[in-house]
Amino acid sequence: MTDSLNYHKQANGVGILTFDQQGERVNTLSSATMTELSTHLSVLEKDTDLKVLVIKSAKPGIFIVGADITEFKSIKTEEESRRVVEKGQGVFMRIQNLPFPTITAIQGVCLGGGLELALSCDFRIVSDSERVMLGLPEVNLGIIPGWGGTQRLPRLIGFRKGLEFILSGKPVPGQKAAKLGLADICVSDAFFDSRLNEFIGRVVKEDECIRLKARQKRRSFIDATSLGRLLIAMLAKKTVMKKTRGAYPAPLAAIKAVRSGFSRRIEDGLEKEALCFTPLPLTDVSRHLVRLFFIQENLRKDSGVIDPDIQSKSVGETSVLGAGLMGGGIAWLLSYKGYSVRLKDVAWPALAKGIQSARNIYGQLLKKRRIKEHQSSLGMHRISCSTGFEGFKKMDLVIEAIVENMDIKKQVFQSLESNVHVDTIIATNTSSLSVTEMATVLTRPQNFVGMHFFSPVNRMPLVEIIPGEKTSDTTIATIVAMTKRLKKTAIVVKDCPGFLVNRILIPYVNEAVFCLQDGAKIDRIDALMEKFGMPLGPLSLADEVGLDVGYKVAKVLHEGYGDRMQVAPLFDSIYKNKELRGKKSGLGFYEHEHAKKKVNPMIGAIIKMDGGYSPRRLDDADIVDRLILIMVNEAAKCLEESVVGKVEYLDMAMLLGAGFPPFRGGLCAYVDYIGVETIVLRLKGLSDLYGSRFKPADLLVTMAEEGIRFYA
Fold first, then answer.
1. In the predicted model, is pLDDT for residue 249 greater than 50?
2. Are 511 and 541 in contact (CB under 8 A)?
3. What confidence category does residue 1 fall into, taking pLDDT thresholds of 50, 70 and 90?
4. Residue 644, strand partner residues
5. What is the pLDDT of residue 352?
6. For residues 416-430, average pLDDT
7. How far is CA 37 from CA 105, 263, 691, in A?
8. How confident is the model at residue 579 (pLDDT cuts 50, 70, 90)?
């Protein structure tokens, strides 16, 4: 009995090599599996009677998910990295050189090394199942396809399309794979076996096999010229640099590998690929991205409760209370994922706006060709509206998304609870208010929980799950499982002012306003943080979220944590001007009424009206340290108070909820990189200059004294 592969030769001369990694949910190409595959190839290479070889998987919905990522963590030298590449390239080259046609039959996820294996075969047949996804996601781990992907894929589907595919790292479904030329044919999953047999029948005929191979050529005129390829590569590099500012070495290495190998013999191209790949697993960026990959995997398995015997309840009927921007977005999400959802508000004009919000998101997906018209229509039909509580007795889950006001929320929850079933779970989408306090007006607080979505709902992947003091484990497990079904990342956090992400992020925005008071320019502050790696500067972010929203959360934090969370006086003055609500009003720190946003001169006028404050001499490093270390310090306090269960989850929450740059690994990983001793010294210096908000957290001081790191 083998561990990963089974081989069977049929009477008609067709060989079937089946991947089925024992004891595992998925197939991976570990070093042991590659050795086993190599052993099978030694037998197959000598079989002169074999007419065709079919490579498939026995696991439902899974072909091969890629290399065993755990093994990349053990690579310590470039020599080891080179050996890993050469081993994979050698095995797949042997597949390419087999003396008979080869077919990969794909009925599930086929990623990374799995797709590179498929590319080394002569033909690929895929099913139209929703579970089928083909991709080369290596750039997302800080590496490049190293087992022939940068060479075989562009030769198959064209230089430009191949480069785009590799640089995006995004998988495609079976039908799109066939359209790209990545697969030779996409067939109905229900008739996959019969269509596979038909395809085998065509391949075993020599003339038909030649015709099928000839159909694979997808090169455009521009691909055929060195000047054309140079132009495509230059444009790709320009796009990568604009998007990443050069922080990620893997996309640049991928461009180099594809371009330098495309016009050469495959053997020479593989050599170029190996040279580009070898140093990448040893970079800090790759180490960070690989660790983040495993954190994501752990979160997918985490039920949110300690007791593994706690079972989540099924959720069928859903409702959203409040048809504002967030409510409309949540209603869209539920309908998009197949749930019937009742959207409730006090008046029909408000409901019309909520429906329009959902329709706009479907429209964006249609424009990007992510969905088809019938899917949009079906999704909208799943949303119904009501100004009353009709039908709420059958709801399994009601998500509240009304105004962020404790008294109003309590009134609504009292009315709501009397109109739902005794087992209905009620979730509040509050961004900072106490879940425990809200639950005091309920007779069934065990069914009440915080479910904090981030805006915009259709793009932000994080949901904070906030149990109150009396929330049951069953409710927590159900909401965590529900969040995962919505394809969001769920992180359970403690009920405290601001919870986790906003508690760390709002001080960052507030500190940016302090810097503005101290004489730094709006666009300079934002440019420095975007250079650091943040997707938006803090003042641009404040405009996007809404200055009123950010200010109210800042006030909640001040009330909860005292003077160390004091709101910048300038922020108070800006909030008093009701014109300044950010992007939604057209005016905030920037003017948003133009094609390109401009710094809003009204902010300077407000500063003058406030007396001008006391400008300081701030260099770039001062601004960056103030903004990043204010977050670092609050993150340490969150860990002291067990706001989140693991350091890793805090880092992931800040990546997904606040846009902290993945190439830096997270706030805690950043502390390890800079050195906690250096961080503490800098915080003490900032505390002397700017006050108690920079006083180093006890956890950081202890770590510095004892030489402890967040990550081993």
1. yes
2. no
3. very low
4. 493
5. 96
6. 96
7. 17, 29, 63
8. very high
Helix (H, G, I), strand (E, B) or coil at 531: helix
Count Cβ atoms within 10 A of the Cβ of residue 538 and give its class: 0-12 exposed, 13-18 middle, 19 or more buried: buried
Using CB atoms within 10 Å of the CB of residue 65, give its burial: 0 to 12 exposed, 13 to 18 middle, 19+ buried.
buried
The CATH code that applies to domain 318-492 is 3.40.50.720
Residue type, 325: L
The pair of three-digit structure tokens given for residue 193, joined into one six-digit string: 């076996």
* % of the chain beyond a pLDDT of 70: 99
Q: What is the pLDDT of residues 459-478, one digit of tens each?
A: 999 999 999 999 999 999 99
**Is the Cβ–Cβ distance between 135 and 111 less than 8 Å?**
yes
Its CATH architecture, for the domain 501-706, is Orthogonal Bundle (1.10)
Q: 549: which 2 tokens?
A: 């929203």
Per-residue pLDDT, 213: 87
| Euclidean distance between CA atoms 657 and 642, whole angstroms | 19
Go through the chain and tell me how many residues it has.
712
Type of residue numbered 20: D
Give the residue-averaged pLDDT of 269-276.
97
Q: What is the reported pTM? A: 0.91
Mean pLDDT is lowest, of 373-387, 488-502, 505-519, 604-618, for 604-618
Distance linking the first and last C-alpha atoms of the chain: 38
Q: CA neighbours within 13 Å on the CB side: how many for 433?
A: 21
Per-residue tokens: 176: 């799109």
The pLDDT confidence band at residue 142, using thresholds 50, 70 and 90, is very high
Give the pairing type, strands 341-344 and 383-386: parallel
Q: Where in the chain is the domain with CATH 3.40.50.720?
A: 318-492
Is 452 an active-site residue? yes
Helices (H) and strands (E) in the chain, counts: 29, 20
pLDDT tens readout for residues 371-398: 999 999 999 999 999 999 999 999 999 9
Q: Which two tokens stand for residue 232?
A: 């495509």
The DSSP call for residue 313 is: P
Whether residue 456 is preceded by a cis peptide bond, meaning omega within 30 degrees of 0, is: yes
Residue 341 bridge partners (DSSP):
318, 383
Which is catalytic among the residues 40, 452, 592, 594?
452
Q: In what order do the strands lie in the sheet with 133-135?
A: 62-64, 109-111, 133-135, 172-173
In this structure, which amino acid lies at residue 28? T
What is the distance between the alpha carbons of residues 472 and 456, in angstroms, rounded to a whole number?
29
- Taking residues 72-97, what's their average pLDDT? 94
Task: Give CATH 1.10.1040.50 domain extents, the chain.
Answer: 501-706
Hunting for tokens 């967040």 — which residue is that?
710
Are 556 and 507 spatial neighbours (Cβ–Cβ below 8 Å)? no
User: In sequence order, what E strands does 525-627 have?
Assistant: 590-591, 598-599
- Strand pairing partners for 427? 399, 449
- Give residue 219's pLDDT: 66
Q: How far apart are CA 137 and CA 114, in angstroms?
A: 11
276/81 Cα distance (integer angstroms): 11
pLDDT of 224 reads 76
Burial 460-492 (b: 16+ CB within 10 A, else e): bebbbbbbbebbbbbbbbbbbbbbbebebbbbb
Helices 249-261 and 149-157, packing angle to 10 deg: 60
Residues 323 and 355: their CA atoms lie apart, in Å, by 8
Task: Check residue 217 and give its pLDDT.
Answer: 72
Backbone angles phi, psi at 157, to 5 degrees: -110, 0
Residues 80/85/91/96 CA torsion (nearest 10 deg): -170
CATH architecture of structural domain 5-282: Alpha-Beta Complex (3.90)
